[in-house]
Fold:
Amino acid sequence: MPNPYWPLFDLVIRTPRLEIRLPSDDILVELVRLASAGIHDPEDMPFAIPWTDASSPDLERSALQWWWHQRAAWSPKDWTFAGAVLVDGIPVGVQDLAARDVATLRSVGTGSWLGRAFQGLGIGQEMRAAVLHLAFAGLGAAEAHSGAWHDNRPSLAVSRKLGYEDNGSDLRLRRDVADRHISLRLTRDGWRAGRRGDIELLGLDGCRAMFGA
Structure:
């Protein structure tokens, strides 16, 4: 049955390879275990906030708190859809979509991570394409933004393959050292040029108002 009070739990983005949905607490436990097992080489840091530097159980606890905060702080004017990525029902990573005042600005941002065992298989591009379908086809976005450190070749490659264009760069702190961060932007026309016809949005009508769209 549809969830009468939190219909966001009914939203599913489905592609031929995977599904993205808001995680239950049971799936959250699996995701934090996956993160604790490793997302990247410890010598590198792909994230602006170095949350993966924390040791267990602080890493798992802080990750759970972050997810719970996204639920508690959700509003139509400011939200983060932190979706679990499932392949054959198994959680393999996380794909975010976030926006503020989306009804007016029609602008969204994305972020993601994958467990190391699932990297290099094309899943990263598939899950980004899925959440962009939610943004553009489902919520009427006009543009999507992403970013990565200058040496994060896999993330930059995914963005460029999906039609993003470079949108400048700036210096940011990376483990307390200044480093260059690349910004990228995908327009609605750019997304439409590569739009796929095999991505489904299930349950969106029941929660569209919660996105402020």
In short: The CA atoms of residues 107 and 123 lie 24 Å apart. The longest strand covers residues 90-100. The beta strands are 12-14, 19-21, 78-87, 90-100, 107-114, 143-149, 165-174, 177-187, 200-202. The longest helix spans residues 58-73.
